[in-house]
Design goal:
14 strands; single chain; 7 helices
């Protein structure tokens, strides 16, 4: 059975996740740790549980989700895994981060690219890769069918969805991703989003104004 440790990091209140199982193997998803205190929080949590990081995963590559990529890569010597379509987004962070007043240490290059339908395995855990563009050009979600949860990045939030006004964003594309890839999951599927609190697919199906048509 997989478990999740969550952190809220950086000025964007971005959610970083560590997914682990009883073997001690774990993956780190969207490390947004920005300063030394946040880096220490991440390392301490991993150390206290005796976990062994195996992979660094990015749902997408906007700055708030990759601020800690280099730190995690350097600390644990683990490969970065992402969708190839996010590579230009990742490579551009170094160009715009300073204009936002951010200190950014360039991310390592990915060592593996995933596509829709791929699986990621570590320990006894398998994550299915769901291709969900719209918030960014090639965002993906990581779905654990066995334990009924999904890490959704900035695709779906509690009562909201990801913004679509950044380069590569598209509202029609995002809504298509949500309706065809997420809304066909079981209602009880827990959603660990890139910002704000967790939710469930069933709750969002019933109450999310972007899905019920009540958004004004």
């Amino acid at each position: 059975m997989a478990s999740i440790i969550s952190f809220t990091f950086n000025a964007f209140y971005e959610n970083t996740y560590v997914i682990y199982d009883r073997t001690g193997a774990c993956v780190i998803v969207d490390p947004g740790c920005y300063d030394r205190a946040e880096e220490d929080d991440l390392v301490d949590a991993i150390s206290k549980k005796g976990l062994k990081p195996a992979l660094l995963l990015n749902t997408h590559c906007h700055v708030d989700h990759v601020l800690g990529n280099k730190f995690v890569s350097d600390t644990y010597q683990i490969p970065l895994v992402m969708h190839r379509g996010e590579l230009p987004i990742l490579q551009n962070v170094v160009n715009y981060a300073p204009s936002m007043g951010l200190r950014y240490r360039p991310s390592p290059d990915p060592e593996r690219f995933v596509v829709d339908g791929d699986t990621i395995t570590f320990g006894e855990t398998t994550l299915d890769v769901l291709y969900t563009p719209g918030h960014s050009p090639a965002s993906v979600c990581f779905y654990c069918k066995a334990d009924n949860f999904i890490v959704s990045g900035d695709v779906l939030f509690h009562d909201s969805i990801g913004r679509t006004d950044l380069p590569g964003g598209s509202m029609p594309t995002l809504m298509h991703s949500i309706r065809t890839k997420l809304m066909n999951l079981p209602d009880e599927t827990k959603v660990y989003a890139g910002h704000m609190q967790s939710t469930t697919i069933g709750r969002e199906r019933l109450h999310n104004p972007f899905l019920t048509g009540t958004y004004a």
